[in-house]
## 1
Amino acid sequence: MKNKLTKNMGLKLASVFLAVVLWFVVNSVNDPTESHSYNNIPVKLLNVELITDSGQVYEVLEGSDVISRVSIRAPRSVHNELKEENIIATADVRELSSLDTISIKLSTNLYASKITSITGSTDTVKLNIEDKRSKALTLRATTSGQVEDGYLIGEVTTDQNLVRISGPQSVIDQVVRASADINVSGMTSDIVTNAEIKLYDAEDQEVTNANITQNIKSVGVKVSILQKASVPVNFSVSGEPAPGFRATGEIEGNGGTIVIAGKSNAIRGVSSIEIPAEALNIADQTEDYTAQIDIREYLPDNIHLASSEDAVRTITVRIEPEVSKKLEIREEKVRVVNVPEGYDASIAGLEESFGIEVIGLSKDVAGLQANSISGVVDIQKWMQQEGLEEPEPGYYTVEVDFGLPSEVTLLEPVTVSLHIAEKEEE
């Protein structure tokens, strides 16, 4: 029996070998081993908490967490079934090198035992690891575009005034402000909306980085749109200059216009801005009085200036010294008027020619001439001053009214003796 098993042993072994070779040949012909490429395979990072739990953040550099091409050598039948999603690429943070790189491990979740080889175009993930930093920024809203003609932008408010950001220190240090912008082009009424919050550096360039986190991404914004109107500003004066000086009545800057803004119902009720006299007190002044007046202090409620450049006005009240002039008046130029019926009135005590001295500003006094001035004693006016309903006969001392302009006064009044008597019946 033993001889039968061992007889022709070499021939038998050769037959087995040839059978195996033939099997491989047949399989190679029907299911040949080939190399195929698979593109854009993402790499999953494992155990990233080892970085984040230590107060640091990481950033993948150069897109190294995506393998542009993975080459797999395997039978054709395997490639027929294998897809990109069956390829598993991982990088374990526990294997982080001193250069902040991690080796990539490749495998598949399908036919792994039939794969001859698997290689990628890149074999490491590159990281940038930094300390994590947080910062709170004051949140402001800005506007862009132009409102409709005749309108302007009023107050711009947000429903939150702070935004907190965190991320890599080098990135967070660049951020200096946070802002939400609203486009107001063509608007004539208030805007209430939500706006995206954007971050900016010191050069006003937007900072965008996927590793920055914000506690809020958008904010509610209200933009008040105000109507404009042009109105005059009127000034008045209080107080009297020092003795011997008078205000000329000229106020430089009075009546100039400013542009105000407000809601339409508030604007309609404003035709001018009146500055109270207390703002320009010229008491005891001996020369031109100049003051800086802040118009904003005297604006009606809910009215604003369209431009801050109009806020302060320089106002000058002209003040000049008084001048005097002496005039010679003829006695016959003084007469009695408005004598009540049934009475006679006469005056005495004046010389044939007497002098008066008038005082006022040069422009008011210079034109006065004696031949154009006459005096009167008005009985009715005198009775009103004395509280008399009917005259009583007798002698009275009364002042003569020379009908001088209101800006001109007498240095000393001129008085006469007035005699009133009842008319005798015929």
## 2
Amino acid sequence: MIRIGIIGAGRIGRVHARSVAAHPQAKLTLIADPMIESAKEVADAYGAKATTEASDVFASEEVDAIIICSPTPLHGDHIVAAAAAGKPALCEKPLAMDSESAAEIRRRLEEQGTPNPIVMLGFNRRFDPSFAAIHKAVEEGEIGELEQLTIISRDPAAPPKEYIAVSGGIFKDMTIHDFDMVRNFLGDIKSVVAVGQNLDPELADTGDFDGVVVTLTNEKGYSATITNSRHCASGYDQRLEAFGPKGALFAENIRPTTVRRSNGEVTDAQDPYLDFFLERYEAAYSLELSAFIDAVQAGEVPTPGINDGAEALRLAEAAEESAKNKTVVTL
């Protein structure tokens, strides 16, 4: 049994608390948040203790491993502190607010003598059963060399403006998952072209794009296209297509049921897509936690790790540069 402490009792912290509570090899023992009432609410729900201090999680003898759900600017401090305490950590994305800060995390880990800590980055979509099945099929050569990868990721509605203002922007907050997915399939990327859209008048004053289309190419000339939007009337739109000379693989949207309706008003109608990321990726969060626990028990550095987080952030910065300057960015 791995005893887990969580830093952050916000939305994503509650997602992880739920996954820990449901996992047969994990137990939530401590949750920290500056807002003690939030920490207590989550702790009480799962029989854990609450504190306002993240330092208590690193020092606690009742915590074997840590899940970091703090604001992004604190990720570096918490990764370094977890490594110093000898405690494995699963850190939510993104790794940092910029590549300079990501490099600083590595430097600090080196300086304190923990250059390769057990740290997993929270790119949970790698563990989605459908996406993972396509990745496995590609790796086994089912469609030949992967020539084109298409990722569609649209949210039902935009997050609050207050969140957007501190999120780092759509590329670092939303597209970052897709950048990691592209690297997982295509490896290192050599060029990035991005188009940003400002089409939602409600978000016009955020200073951020509300939709993006990104094309990425690796050294072999194989490409990936990412389409994002902050709004989607039909729900949480999450699709993936892998295409090669021997065929194509498709991961379609998930619905509450498989029922189809045909009558005088509709033909072959289905339920809307799932409307919340937790429902859509519930299995992915559970499998991500299992992979983290396996790494902890084996004493191995997990994948995706710090380098994957840094590389995804690098792609996010390249895409932002491309969209703002209307140019191709070569890496």
## 3
Amino acid sequence: MSIFKRKKPEYTDISQIQLPEHIGIIMDGNGRWAKKRGLPRSAGHTAGAQTFRKIARYCSNIGIKVLTVYAFSTENWRRPEDEINALMKLFKDYLEESIRDFKDDSIVLKFIGDRSVFSDDLLELMTENEEESKNRDGMVLNIAMNYGGRAELVTAMRGIAGDVRDGKLSAEAIDEQLISDYLYTKGQPDPDLIIRPSGEYRTSNFLLWQSAYSEYVIMDVLWPDFKEEHLNKALIEYANRNRRFGGV
């Protein structure tokens, strides 16, 4: 028998399973979704934003503690200028709406990534959303904007090196937990499950440190077509795996 043969699934419904605490989603496929329909790429991003709202609320409603979504990577700046401009406008529209739309939700909004490149009005909206939601007691929603896993680690290493230089920290104190405490996700559990729609088999520089023991589920559906039933399928797939964390 092959050691890679999967065990026959035991769970068939999310009501039977223990949900992961932290889910990461690489929201991939907006451009291809638009191209298949003869639409501009911006139309795919608009459709993807609608899917994001729906899935974020669904995760909150079923009891997920932390959801991290990959909205815009450090590499996405290489895209055509008109597409980037459309994305920035979409982000701005979303942040303006979220102040109103999420005000009755328990969702806590956080933005992870390098904010220094964003416009003042976008930065102001990020801060306002975080301030408005910080005292809520529900799911933490991390929106990764201008985020890259390698860049995050570089930022963390610079922070640690600076504190060692200033005498706030000894080199001997550096361990895995300390490195985690210098990341954007400080104080949050590492992702148990990372979902990548669109069928691509890449991590794409997403939560590189945090995902060391995450389960990945790759799904052959473009993000704008992703529905609650796709998330349920991924959750069941996750529940039917045997997580050993390097043990037996």
